[in-house]
Amino acid sequence: MDPAPATPRWNLERPYLTGRFHQEAKTAAAAQAPGSKPFSLDSFSRGAGASTGSVIGSFAASVQELLVIDDLLSALVGIEGRYISIKRVRGKEGYVVFQIDSSMDLALQERTREIFPLCEDYVLVSQFVESRSHFKNGLVNHALAAALRAFLLDYQAMVAQLEHQFRLGRLSLQGLWFFCQRMTSSLNALAVLVEKATSNNTSGSATLNLLQSQAKAMGGDSAVRSLLEKMTEYASAAYLRMLERWVYEGVIDDPYGEFFIAENKSLQKESLTQDYDAKYWQQRYSLKEGIPSFLTNVAAIILTTGKYLNVMRECGHNVQVSLENSKLMSFGSNHQYLECIKSAYDFASGELLTLMKDKYDLIGKLRSLKRYLLLDQGDFLVHFMDIAREELTKKPEEISAEKLQSLLDIALRSTAAASDPTHEELICCVERSSLLKKLATLKDLDCACPADKLAAADVDQSMQLSITGLETFCLSNKVQWPLSLVISRKALTKYQLIFRLLFHCKHVSRQLCSAWQIQQVFRSVKILGTPILRSSILCRSMLKFVNSLLHYLTFEVLEPNWHLMHDRLQTARSIDEVIQIHDFFLQKCLKECLLLSPELLVKVEKLKALCLQYATSIQLLMPSIEVTNSENKSKSGKSRSRTNKSQDRDQQLKLTSENVIMSESILKFEAAFNSELQSLAPTLSNSSHAEPYLTHLAQCILGVRIDQ
Prior knowledge:
Layout: H1 10-13, H2 15-18, H3 26-31, H4 48-52, H5 61-75, E1 84-88, E2 96-100, H6 106-131, H7 138-167, H8 173-200, H9 205-217, H10 222-249, E3 261-263, H11 280-283, E4 285-287, H12 299-314, H13 336-359, H14 362-372, H15 379-387, H16 389-392, H17 401-413, E5 426-430, H18 435-441, H19 451-456, H20 459-462, H21 469-472, E6 473-477, H22 489-519, H23 531-570, H24 575-592, H25 598-621, H26 624-634, H27 642-657, H28 660-690, H29 694-707
Antiparallel strand pairs: 1-2, 3-4, 5-6
């Protein structure tokens, strides 16, 4: 907000322009040299009568009445007379008291003092008009000062008419008092108003609230109430113009910081795709304190309306609400202004939602995220894991993101994803920490366990496994404005958490399938009770566990929740509702995927780690397969009988099956897997009562255990 222009010094230093001339000594001020300080009435005593040596009490009562009426006509507009003086109240700027010559007839004194409050109120209101007309006080105070000035003009016209009657000899002191009664209550109400406004230094909405409260307090005096309501209407005109520009154009036209909506220009829309904790949508435009009482109930709607219009303007889609029959003239009891605001909100909301759905294809973008980050279309992933296996087995810091991106592009172009234009928006990412550590860093997730305990329970530390790209790889997506309002950095991070869980489950399943294929060659060795048979049964149980977990995540969690979100989006009426529906979908998926249940997630991760260790051990402890294959290739040129080859192969397989190390390893894996599975089953069963979604997972896991 630019600083308010300064009020020129000449407008402050010349008393006859500011209404302060009643505070300056007339003869003493004129005698002062240029540039010197004028005398104040606080140090100046008497009036013109004192200088002549006569006092008002020396005249007859009839003459005194004429003299005091003449002085009162001046006092009514804040000017000293010959026998009525003005003194300032110390410590209160603008406050004055009127004093009468004590030698005056007592009856005349009493009647004169009854008129003094009107004079004092005029001075107070006049001073307020002058002071609140300065630039720094804002448009509302300017408008109120202008309305008060118009009222004072009517008041001064009344004084001029009374003076005319006095010159014609038709005005008595009693008559003067009588004719002033009409203005007394009105000017007193305005004086009380400006006194409170001055003491609280109100501006903007605070001034409007004060006007409204004062009008309501005058319910017993319809004339005064009507006057204050009129003042409120005039003062609110400037405020309503600000409101109009905001709800009809999305522009804050607030040169003095009076509007109840603040703009934080340091927050840019680009932060939505870069910062996990981006506050652009919540804090770029926000409500300030001191909302006008007549707008309190619709303040949120007003804020949202302007925000929607701003989004469309940022997109280059200039749109303005039609002003036909929608002019915000006042906020009277008919509540027409509320209907105008509601109409503006409905228009802006509908326009932005149509823009997001039609021009920017919001639903299509969400389908793309489902297809690739929630693995709805998995053929590209199988191909990618095959061709990127060597790169993904490296440590995260050794992986080339550019090479992974190139391999991903190859996988996408060689599968059904090639026909989808959105596949070009996919980006490869490699995190530097495990899934559990990543969850521990996200403070805003509603986890049931503290972050420090979550990090301490990291499976990779307990299992002493080295982290590779297979545990840290994830996909991201390019999101442009204005879709980033819905699919922000935070939303994409939640998608990535789910992707990492699914991707790792796929990897574990593939490793177990490889181990299963290696063991198939032992079918010809028909020795029941050997470690090979136990390993085969264990491998099948592990595969059922991982595949059941994948089935649960895909078909029991992601698929139904996505369809539910899709149906709700069809009936959404605003972009805020879309954001709420989308965030609810992601939060629900995170919860039902166990990512917000650390105790269960740690157990599942331990089971997956055991499966990976087992699959790796099988490949290391059965080298004879590879040896046999290499011998067959190296001796392919030599003539060997099929019978001899078969006998050699059977002999090597039998030796391997009797290997002591392999037997011990299989028994160890079997005991560890069964133990973890048995500890998981009761936890799932107990938690399923409080969390019904765990019932499906419990059935899958318990099924594996029963089968085992």
